[in-house]
Amino acid sequence: MHPVLIFRHSPTEGPGYFTTFLNRHNIPWKLVRIDAGDAVPENLNGVSGVCLMGGPMSVNDDLPWIPAVLALIREAVASDIPVIGHCLGGQLMAKALGGSVGANPEKEIGWGDVRITDADAARPWLGDAQAPMPAFHWHGETFTLPPGATRILESAFCANQAYVLNGRHIGMQCHVEMTPELVASWCDSGAAEIAASDSPGVQQVAAIQSDLPARTAQLHQLADKIYSRWIQGLRK
Fold this sequence. Notes:
It contains eight helices and nine strands. By secondary structure, it is α/β, with parallel strands linked by helices. It has one domain (about 5-230): Class I glutamine amidotransferase (GATase) domain (Rossmann fold), CATH 3.40.50.
């Protein structure tokens, strides 16, 4: 199988559990380190899928790599190569495919449940889950749905937490890839942002790190469902 191309936009926002999942299923992957100056590939020859991780920047920033990534997302969707986006990645997908990205009504940082909004569209990705599911959040912006996409998840502070397109692509505002190490690292580097926020959607560091192993294990149950569906579409 060709490798999955994974875009890392910040050194602290690596693929985390996503690559653990790929390794478990013997799926090769290649990391494109945008933060380290790696060039955006000119095409998707020899690529089975595209994964986009998070990052502190905005998709609306004037950064030299953003237009090239947006073009690659459009190429992937046009070629039926599965795309998955986490937070900034979901926003990049939305903008590439005709949606927009702007400020969310409230900044959202920490643990918060997501709820299914369209049972039929969500079923291939999440099964017949009825109860809210815990997810991790760290964002101040959010996306509108691109044309043709269907929203499948929402949270108390963000209406668009995940959308699916053409049965094989998924863009998420939330983070399902977190590990205890990633959470701890973000809390360390983002402590000042947390302290400066008065948003009701922002949790304090102690609350975020409480019961971390158990919470991330539960998060990975959600990730397993989403990732298991996504890899079904990988180009062989």
